[in-house]
Amino acid sequence: MNKFLILTILAASWLGLAAMSRAQSLPSAGQKLIGGQIEQVELCCNGLKIEVGDPNSGEFLFMPGKSTLYPYYNIFTPGAWVLGTASGQGVCQKLFSFPPCVKSDKVDGIIDIIGTSSL
């Protein structure tokens, strides 16, 4: 009887810990999932505007120092697959405008973390 009770408690504890660790890996409120192929990359004064296709599409701003890039570090090549999260709203300050860095395009979010395929 004691063995059964101990095993039951251990199994319940293990399942509880597994559920908690899974809940911590989900995006929090206000974060958007990024996932799809890179369709276009545009240079901005404050980073890179990355246009991502389906299934989780949108235009997102990669800001060095704020955004974390994971292997294979391939955010410059259209056709590479990306996966990550973004939050908030941002603007791409256009580099090739006159005067530079004044015109802005709204983006769907600022990238928090992003990883890429090797393509």
Automatic annotation (TrEMBL):
Domain of life of the organism encoding this protein: Bacteria
Signal peptide residues on this chain, from the entry's feature table: 1-23
Keyword set, alphabetical order: Signal
Protein name: Uncharacterized protein
Species this protein is from: Candidatus Vogelbacteria bacterium CG10_big_fil_rev_8_21_14_0_10_50_13
Phylogenetic classification of the source organism: Bacteria, Candidatus Vogeliibacteriota
